[in-house]
Structures are given as C-alpha cells and as structure tokens.
Amino acid sequence: MELSGSIPNSSDLDRFSVALQVSREQVGALYERGVGSTDSEHHAQLLAAIEDLSIAEEELRAQQEAIIEAQRELEIERRRYRILFEGAPDPYVVTDEHGTIQEANDALAGLLGVPAERLVRKSLDSFIDTLARQGLDACLRESPTGETAYSTLEVKAPDGRVIPVEATLSVLDSAFDGKRSFCWQLRDVSERQETEASMRALNRSLNARVAQRTRELELALEGEQSARKDAEAANRIKTELFARLSHEFRTPLHAVSGYLEILQQNIHGALTKEQRRDLDRIHQAQEHLMALVNMILDFAKLEAGPIELSMAEIPVEETLLGAEALVFPQFAKKKVAYTHHAGDPCVTVFADREKVQQILVNLLANAMKFTPAGGSVDLDWRLEEDSLLVRVRDTGPGIPAEKIEQIFEPFVQLHSAGSLPTGGTGLGLPISRDLARAMGGDISATSTVGVGSTFTFALPLRKHILLAPSFQRPGPPVNFEGASRTPELTLEQSTAALYDLVDDPSVFIKQDWKSYTPDDHEVWGLLYERRMNQLRKNGSKIFLKGADTIGLKKETVPDLAEVNRRLAPPTGWEAVPVSGFIPAKSFFQCLSLRKFPTTVTIRKRTQLDYLPEPDIFHDVFGHVPLHADPVFADFLQHYGQVAAAADNEEDTTRMARLFWFTVEFGLIREDGQIKVYGSGLISSHGDAANALGPKCDRRPFSLEAVFNQPFEIDHFQDVLFVTESFDQLYEAVEEAGRRIGAIR
Ligand SMILES: [Fe+2]
After folding, report:
1. How many angstroms does the Cα of residue 593 sit away from the middle of ligand 1?
2. Torsion angles phi and psi, residue 719, rounded to 5
3. Spatial distance between the Cα atoms of 149 and 142, rounded to a whole number of angstroms
4. Within a 13 Å sphere around the CA of 733, how many CA atoms are in the beta-carbon half?
C-alpha cells in the first residue's frame, strides 16, 4: 500500500498497521490451506515473503516511535518559544515579506497601545512614522536570506509621541513554500537618546566653562607674573639700597670711631672729665649704630642670594663658648645672671662655625635685651635623636602665643607693657633662622607671658657617634654669673677641652718659630726638595693639592699658625704643637676634635734619611696636607672617635692596624696608577720606593683584610693596601665603629 506524503501522519500509520495485520492473517490462512495442495517451491516463496513482511513491520514500528518522540520535542520547543516570545521585555514581532504582522508579543502591544491579538494581519508600516517608513522598506528589501540587519525606526505611540526604536531584523526562510518571514526585535532607545543628548549638552557647557576659566587663569597668571616681576625688581632695588646705604654708613662710622680714639688717647690735648664722659657716650652710640648697620648688611646679603657656608665638623662646646664671650660683658652690665650648662667637650656637629656663633650671639643678645635687671638667662645643649639642640632660656616678659611666629618676620619688634626699650632692627631672629635653615637646621620658640621665653636652635647631626663611657662624661657646670668671669676667651680657654684630654697639659706647647736656626730651615729645604721631586710623580694628587692649600714651601720650616690659618676654612682641622709623646687614647681624642698633635722639632742633618721618632717633617709634611681634603678630614676625625671608644685589646689592635695601613702607609689608585698618601710613605724616600717596588705585596683595601694583617715597625712593609678612594676609608671606619660598638 502507499502512504500519503513523504512523512506519514498518525492516521496513515494506523491504517497501514490494520492493513498489515489483515494481510498477515490472510497469508497465514492461505498458507494453511495451501499445505499439501502446492508444490515445495511455491511453499518456500511464501515463507520468504512472510519473513520480509515481518521485518518491514518492525522497521515501520521503530520509525513510528521516533516520529512520535520528535513530535513531542517539537511541541516542547514550541511552548518554550511562546513563553520567551510573549514574556520578552523587548517588543518582538514576526512579519511576512510585505510587513504584515503574523505574530506580536505583549511588549510590542504595550509599545503600540494595541492588544497583541489585534495586531495580527495588520501592516507594521501603519505603526511607523511616515518619514521612517523608507528605512523599514529598505530593511525588508535589502536583508539577504539568513542575515541579521539593524536599523533605527520611529514608532508612533498611542499618545501621539514618536518613539525612537532600534530594530534588529532576522530573516527566516520557510522550508516548505520558500517564502520569507522576518523576526523584528525592537528596543525603545528614547531614554538613552535623551541621556546622550543631555550628556552632549553638559559636555558643551563644560567645555565652554573650561575655556572661560582657562582664559581667566591665563589673565590672572599674566597679572601675577607681572606683579611678581615688579615685586622682585622692587626687592632687588631695596636689597641693593640696603647694601649700598650700609656701606655708605660704615665708612663714616669707622671714621668717627678713629677720631674718637684719637680724642680718647689725648693726642690733641687732655680732655676734661665731662668731655671724656661725653666721648664715652658718643662711642657707645657709634658702636650701637655700627651693629645695626652690620645687621642690615647681613640681611641684605641673605636677601641677595644663597648663603655661602663653610661647613666642617666643629666642636659644639668650644663654639658656644666662643659666641657667648662676645655678649657676656652686656650681661654683667645689665645685671642679668647668665648660666652656661656645659656639655661634652668632644661632641662635634657638621656646621659653619662662624654662622653658628652669629646665631648664638643673636639669641643671647635677644634674651639679654628682653630680660630685666635681676632676671636670668640660661644656655644648655643636648643631643636628641639626630639633632643637636641648643636652648637659650630667659626670664623676660614672654611673648603671646599668637605672636610667636611674627617675631621671625623681618622688621618685627614686639613691645609689651613693662618691657624695656629694645632698640635694634628686628632683623636678628629672621637672619638667625635663615642661617640655621641654610645649614639644615631651624630655630623655634616657646614662651609663657610673665614667665619667659625659650629659643631652641636645632642642627642635624651627620652621624650619631656613641662614644666610649670614659668619653661621655658631662663637663662640669660652668657658672658665669655676674662679672666674675673674664669676658674674653684666652688661647688657654679656647683649648681647654683639649687640655682636659691629657694628664699633663704641659705637653701642649707653643711653636717658637723664631728659634729655628738657619740650619734647621736648610734641613727642611733639603728634605722638602728631595721628597717633592719624587712625589710630583708618585704622590697622591690629594696630597699635592693639600700641600699647596696649607702653603708648604721649600724655604722655611712651616709656621703652624700660618698652616692653621689656611687649614681652618676647608675642614676646620688644626695642627696642635706638642712636646712629645701623648697617650694613645688622648691622641685619638685629639683627632676626634680635629686637632692633630704635631711635633715641632726637626731632625739633624746627620739623620736626613731615617729618624725613629716623628719630627715636624713627618708630622706636617707627611700628615697635615691630607687634612685639607674634606673626605679624609671626616675619615680621620671619625677614626679618632671610634678608636677612642675601643676598650679591649683586640679592638685596640684592630684600630691600630687600620691607622697603620691607611694614615701611615696607605696607597691609593688614581687614574689607574698606584700613588702614595700615607705619611710614612710621603715623608720617607726609602719607604715609598719599597711600597711601589717589586718586593711589596700590594693588596686591595678591605677592612677585614686590614684588621687581620699584623705589621712591624722596624723594617720595610711586606704587605700594603691600595684604596680606591677616601670615601672607602670613611665607610671602613664607620663599619669599624659598628663592629666595636662605637657607632649605633
Ligand atoms: Fe705618623
């Protein structure tokens, strides 16, 4: 039998099944009836036919079951599609090729304001704005089969509004009739377009505001630059005027001073008692005026440009004593008690000595000026973390809290009831603060009205050296009340700290330069010439430069006063004449104060080539030139501090080896060549020749190697060490300090 169509439906299958069953029974009947009446061949054919039919039946049954399953799955798909289609938040519509609506979901019904079922068979065109219909037609026309197209349309809403929508168009082909249908997904983009429009408007408005503000700022900047130029020009004129006026004032003031002295010395005849008293007053007024002019000149210099500093490690206590000596007479005169709380004389700070003293003089003069008779001024100092803090405390009237900062402004002077007339320019504190800041420090003030004020001058410490216990002893408090103290420091007082370091201070002597004989000068000249001829070839350039700096010359034995005058500006070191041996600990402590104990005797002509003990040629020619080099100067001072802290035999031996292989017998590599810089090599031809000759084992400098290398003093050195720079030595001594616990 034949089935209707290519795929049987359920009724076709039922009929086929019924037909098949009937046929099989009929065949069975035929078969039963034919047994015995037909021949065997006919019988076999029948059996085969029955077998074929049975197989076909099974196949058909399996196909029927597969089709039923496919139908069931198709139904599930269809239901799923309906749920998604109808429940989709975006409007969906399916049209034919002409735009006639075949299906529409609820979202579309909502957009168009027409129930979904009434949309079917209507033209989608009728809901599109007239002007946008061309876009729709183009979409329908141009979309190729199976492609997705995009367009923006405008849909008419029930309330008459035109709503912009984005349309995503998918083309569907029918497998049966070849006709195309279109699935449209529409999205209301009115809100987005409004947002975009408002963003564009905002952007335009912002751009306009930015342009306007930029123009305003440009105008303001031009104005500010012009004002600044005017102010700078005015400031320059003011500074120049100050400087010029101050100079102009100083010249006649000096003349006044000179003529006053002539009168006071009675050169033009004796003065009466009254005339003398008046002259004293004129003299005081002249000195006061000169001080004011000097201060204005200082201020003008500070205003004019960067401050020139001569920085070096300076002993704190000694520097403070030097400053207070300048103002001390005024304390006595005004009957203000002054107390100086002395600190460790060995502590140093990296600063400009003159500037530190200028600041201290200003602070002390200020305290004295504002403290009434019977009051007191105290000075003390201490190390705190990485700073040196010097404090000047007075019992003056005090400064109101809101005016504390004002006192650091130029030309500001505070007046309060009960305070004394102060005089002055109001420049002392601003100048002092500028100087302190130029050295990396600062000045601050605290005050209580009716009680007094405290000014604190802080300076940074380069490295905090923790000295050995014996070295930490505080100095005895020095009380300078009233006029009991000599106002000016003598040489002995200025080196008091040094004298404290030895049991027998008479070891420090004066160099009696005039007592050198012509033969002494000649011996010096011979030694100088012989060594210099060699050292110009194999001596360190730092030595040669230092020798020039301190003014060594062939003609005469050096005058230490002259050497020190040249040595102080670059590094603050000083060659201190000694009569002979001083104990090692004292020697190290001298180094820590930047004082180099120096022998002043000179060898005899018969000892030109060898002298067992040092003389002035070894000490001044050999050692002192290197003290003019800032890095070596720092290294040697720190060496002194660390070595002084060594308190056991092992550390003492190590530090002695470090001294021996650097300060005494050091070699340095300069421009690829090994040069001598140790004093034993600088001052001795034989030692230098050995050090650079084939018998000496020259090794790279390292602290570890030096610490472990013994030395002997009575023959040429077998092993020496070559450093790459004095920075390496500085780092080595810092490392040595950490190892022996002298530096934290
Ligand atoms: Fe030496």
Report:
1. 18
2. -130, 130
3. 9
4. 29
Token representation of residue 633: 């100067």
Task: Give the model confidence (pLDDT) of 193-202 as tens digits.
Answer: 899 999 999 9
The CA-based diameter of the chain, rounded to the nearest angstrom, is 192
Token digits for 715?
């023959």
DSSP letter for 678, please.
Answer: S
CB 499 within 8 A of CB 508: yes
**553 Cα: distance to centroid of ligand 1 (angstroms):** 20
Class of residue 323 by CB neighbours under 10 A (exposed 0-12, middle 13-18, buried 19+): buried
Distance of CA 623 from the midpoint of ligand 1 (Å): 7
Two tokens at 327?
Answer: 């103002």
> How many angstroms separate the alpha carbon of residue 496 from the centre of ligand 1?
25
What's the half-sphere exposure (Cβ side, CA atoms, 13 Å) at 208?
Answer: 6
Please name which of 614, 361, 652, 620 lies closest in space to residue 513, comparing C-alpha atoms. 620
Prediction pTM value: 0.40
CB-based burial of residue 416 (10 Å sphere; 0-12 exposed, 13-18 middle, 19+ buried)? Answer: middle
pLDDT computed for residue 146 by the predictor: 52
Distance 88 CA to ligand 1 centre (A): 101
* Beta-sheet strands, E only, within 162-307: 162-173, 180-188
Mean pLDDT for all residues in the chain: 81
55 Cα–ligand 1 center, Å:
125
Q: How far is the CA of 661 from the centre of ligand 1 (A)?
A: 11
Q: Of 662, 679, 653, give the one whose Cα is nearest residue 722.
A: 662
